[in-house]
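Hi R.,

As promised, here are both runs. First protein below:
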Amino acid sequence: MATGLAYHPRFLEHVAGSHHPERPARLLAILDGLEEAGLRGRLVPIDAQPVDPRWAQMVHSPQYLARLEEACRRGLPYIDTPECGIVPASYDIALLAAGACTAAVDAVMRGDLQRAFCAVRPPGHHAMYDVSTGFCLLNNIAIAGHYARRAYGLERVLIFDWDVHHGNGTQQAFEPDGEVLLCSIHQDPRTLYPGTGYATEVAVEPGRGGILNLPMPAGSGDDDYRRVLEREFLPVAEAYEPQLVLVSAGFDAHRDDPLAMMDLTDDGFAWMGRMACDLADRFAGGRLIAVLEGGYNLPVLRRCVPQMVATLCDVEPTPR
């Protein structure tokens, strides 16, 4: 079955600051990489529309959404913290990014597509219920997870977050009720923002949802990730038998990324992508949606995202 691409040119209009690492060039590098790998033409475009506010309110308070809209309308330089820079269009673009992810859920759950990659920004997994943090305004993947459960009646949604930073906003969104199984593998919170994501924070019961945090020491590489994921993550995910796999796909654990201290290579990300697809194939009828989070080295994005998309398409990238 086909693989979709959720993208909209308006994502380039969000500017967090003149020297901010979360910049429009990230998406341009990804799009160039997809063209160079001969993949762009294989992907079915997914029509992105602003998310319905009722779905955003499953994750964020109405007061926060109103405050974000007002801050953008007034032309403030940031909301809540200087790292969360905004421009007047940022509120609309954040709604569009979240809507691209729910549109991907629609396409996959209807059977129009088997898999999808959401090339969206601003990213989302740090966005909390009532505050923006870590470059994130709305929590795209948490909104998609709630949407998949309620709009399609899914009982078991797996969110696999391999961004180097702990997805504190996503954990907050699902921590109270264990509605999904969230696994976050990230750099040890004692050495990296946001300082959350300890293994002791929440437990997972076999076969049920919950939070599985896998903090990794700074300097961990491909073999370390593979060993921990095979030992700690895969048995839990297999017992859960997910009906849909969502991936918070950050590429900032790469050894060349400027914002962290990990040692993953292109091969490490390729292996994680294959592992996620294998889980989806075995338990979810192949249904998988990957959502872009971090990753701030442009050549890494240009290589690693097309490599992952090729895995979603079950093809080998063919450079032109």
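And here is the second one, sequence first, then its structure tokens:
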Amino acid sequence: MSNIEFQKNYFELFELPVQFSVDETRLGKSFRQLQQQLHPDRFAGASAHEQRVAVQYSALVNQAYTVLLEPLARALYLLELQGISQQEVSSQKVAGGFLIEQMELREKLETISDMVDPETVLDHLMTEILADIKIHQNEFESAYVESELSEAAAACVKMQYLAKLLLEAEQIESGWLD
């Protein structure tokens, strides 16, 4: 347990480059290797301190994996590494046109059950939201690479709006399946 470094950032922990694009296969492999090293059975005969450190490090590995696996969380973490808090990201202004689009999408979602073919409309809407999320992920990545951090933060805000909308659409869809 002496080689554990709690000061590493999440990318360093998994020996990945600090960038938005992540090799998910490599991330998963590194995650499994670290989890094997930290398995409780390996520390059954260790001191209470070593067991506690292993549990804490395992929690850090799990948190890092979860953050790096999810694009929005990864983007927010990259901004955090640049000294931009999630609160600062949330206070970013987005263009009025984007907000109008969000209101229109939300209105469609709220009235979907009144439509002739709500399942098809919902599928189309979810596809549209996922495509928009991808656009803003690309927008984030470009801005981040160019060190345009306020633009990267604005892209995160857009991804947050769309992620909430997608979650609502998924909840509607799962309600239909019940």
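A quick note on the second one: The CA atoms of residues 1 and 50 lie 7 Å apart. Let me know what you think.

Best,
J.
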